[in-house]
Design a protein that fits this description.
single chain; 52% strand; 6-stranded antiparallel sheet; 95 residues
Amino acid sequence: MSIYLYMQTTLYQSKYQRLGCIPFYSDSLELLNNPEYDQYIKIVYAPKGVRLRVDFNEYYCQVPTLFFVSPNQYLHFMELAGHGYLIYKPERKTH
């Protein structure tokens, strides 16, 4: 398994899997809203106080919350609080 640091992200890679993890804080809005991550399957651990939009729904996390977001869904962070994580995995390509 290899671990790479890229744009404040950690990338875990083995022969068969690739998984990235971005720890975020209140100053990470620009990094999280980067369109580079639109193509990935995403899991967001959002601590209390995070406000984000998934598709047409806006969420304000009153308790720590997990979001599972597919590559074709819109994800936009509006307000960050505390320490959370964005985990992303490229979608498997079928040939």
